[in-house]
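Treating backbone geometry as a discrete language has practical consequences that deserve illustration. In the encoding step, the backbone of a single protein was reduced to a row of integers, each denoting a local shape. The amino acid sequence and the backbone structure tokens for this protein are reproduced below.
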Amino acid sequence: MRFIFFLFVVISFHANSQTLVKGLKKKSFGNYKGVIESYHYIADTVTIQVEASPIEISLDKKFISITVGKITKRGSYVVLFKGSDYYLIDAFFEGDVLTERIVVNDKKKTLLREGIHPQPNTTLSKTKGR
């Protein structure tokens, strides 16, 4: 009986430690701008050249929005991990099957958006004003 109680307590603390990551700091909120570099996409035997596109990501306390070219999508995010000067977050958008992985670096005031294959990773810089 003691073993089962001990096991229950250990599992409970372990589960809680996985969910104790707090949200982003206020200084992380704001607008970030950058450019997705051009890249090649191979579909069957055809190679398609995709031109560079401007990208803007806006973070606030509860929501994230991404604008690529003229397309904007809005969703929510969850903080997966907090490092010494960065946060790893997953962004969820309605209608999308995949999540977007984003690294917010408070010290450098940058944001790294991991591109979904074949799109390259993109580093965005925080804009003034927020």
Observations:
- The chain has one domain: 23-126.
- Helices lie at 2-18.
- Residues 13-20 have pLDDT under 50 and may be disordered.
- The CA atoms of residues 104 and 111 lie 4 Å apart.
